[in-house]
C-alpha cells in the first residue's frame, strides 16, 4: 500500500517548497517531490531559481561588480590595490557554495516543518479513491497517494529552433553560470533579464559582449523613459546592443560560434564569438509529468490551464509558478503557493498581479511595479508623472553611483499611484516601498508626506512622489 498524504507537491522550486511548508503549517500531512541533483548526485531542492537562476546569477553579479570596482573605482576612494586579477574558477566555486547553502536550507526547512521529501521525478499514475497516485522515480521507484496535488514543476530555457543547447558553445542560463574562464568574445541572443545580467557579468570580467535583440525597442515591458536611461548606461559601459535583428543560421566550430543575421536596416551581418548565450524566454516544464494519465489540461503553449485561483480542470489538482500563466518570477510563484495552500485549508489566499514587482539586477538596476506611461496612454487613462534623478541624491553621490532616476505615475484625478519605475543603485530594494504603497491604494501625496531617513537612496522615492505635484525640494 502506497504512503498516503493530504497534500503532495511536485517540484521544490520557489513555488513548490513554499507550498509544501505553508500546507504543513496549516496542519496537513505533506510530501514534496523534486529531482534536482547536485554534482555529487545528492538532493538539490530550490529549482531553477536556486540552482541555475536567481541565486547563482546574483552571486556572479556581486563578484564581477567587486572586481570592476577594484579595477576602476577604488582609486577614487584613495584605495591602492596594485594589479587586480580575477580567479574565475574560484568565483564559480563561491557561487556553488552559495547554491548549496540554499539547497541545504530548504532541506532543513522541510525537516523543521515535518514535510516528507522524496528525491526523484514525480508523475501522475492514475486517479485514486479520494485523490491521485503519484510515481516517484528516484534511486528506487515508489508510489504515493495525495488527496490534493500541487504542481510546481517550473520552466526550461527555450532554445533557438534547430539549435539545441550543448552548454559548451551554445549556452542556456545553466551553461552561462558555469563558465570556467572568461571568453574573449561573447554573444547573446535576447536582451531580457537573463541576457542582460549574464552579459553584465562577463563584460565586467573582460568579455567583448554583443547582444542581438529581435524587438525594435529595448526592454519594451519597461517604462520607455526608464528603458532609455538604462540603455544609455549599458552603451556607456561597452555592452553592444543591436535591436531589430533577425537571426538566421547559427553554426558551431572548433573555435566558437558563427551567427548569421540581418540588422535593423536589412543588411546581412555575421557575428563570430567564442560562446553564445541564448536567452529568448522559457517554456513550461511538464516533461515526465504524465498529464495525459489523468486528463490534465494544457494550453497551446504547453502550460497547465488554471483559473484565477490556480485550480486546474481536475478536482483537487492545483498548479503554480512558471508552469502556469503569468510572469515567470520566483516571487510570483511563492505568492501563488501560499495562496493555494490556504485555499486548500478553506481560507482566502491572495495574489494581486497588479502589484508584482519586476527587477533586473544589472548595474544600474532596473525595477518597476504597476503600469507604464505607454500602457496608460494606450488605455486612455489620464495621469500625472514626476521623476527625481539620483544625481541630486546625497547618498548616491557618496556611493559614487548617481546613474538613473525614480519615477512615479499617479491618477490625474484621484492621485492613486498607478506605477513606480526606477533605474539606478539598489532599486531592487527601493521598489518594495512602492509595492506596499500600491497594495494599500496610496496616493503619491501619501509617499510625499512620509519622513524618509537622510541621507538615503529612499529619499529619491519621496522626491519623485513630490515631483508628481511639481514640488521637489532637492532638484
Automatic annotation (TrEMBL):
| Chief localization | cytoplasm
Q: What is its EC number?
A: 1.8.1.4
Per UniProt, NAD(+) binds at 190-197, 213, 281
The record's Gene Ontology cellular component field reads: cytoplasm
Q: Where is the FAD/NAD(P)-binding domain?
A: 5-337
- Where along this sequence does the record place binding of FAD? 58, 122, 153-155, 322, 328-331
The residue range of the signal peptide is none
GO MF, one example: flavin adenine dinucleotide binding
Keyword hit for Cytoplasm: yes
Q: Which Gene3D superfamilies match?
A: 3.30.390.30, FAD/NAD(P)-binding domain
Q: Where in the chain are disulfide-linked cysteines found?
A: 49-54
The alphabetical list of record keywords is: Cytoplasm, FAD, Flavoprotein, NAD, Nucleotide-binding, Oxidoreductase, Redox-active center
Something else known:
The active site is a redox-active disulfide bond.
Q: How is the cofactor bound?
A: Binds 1 FAD per subunit.
Q: What class of enzyme is it?
A: oxidoreductase
Q: Which reaction does it catalyse?
A: N(6)-[(R)-dihydrolipoyl]-L-lysyl-[protein] + NAD(+) = N(6)-[(R)-lipoyl]-L-lysyl-[protein] + NADH + H(+)
Q: What is the native source organism of this protein?
A: Diaphorobacter ruginosibacter
Cofactor(s) of this protein: FAD
Q: Where is the active site?
A: 454 (proton acceptor)
Subcellular location per UniProt equals:
Cytoplasm
**Which GO annotations describe the biological process of this protein?**
2-oxoglutarate metabolic process
UniProt family annotation: Belongs to the class-I pyridine nucleotide-disulfide oxidoreductase family.
Presence of the UniProt keyword Kinase in the record: no
Top-level lineage group: Bacteria
> What range(s) does the Pyridine nucleotide-disulphide oxidoreductase dimerisation domain occupy?
356-465
Descriptive protein name: Dihydrolipoyl dehydrogenase
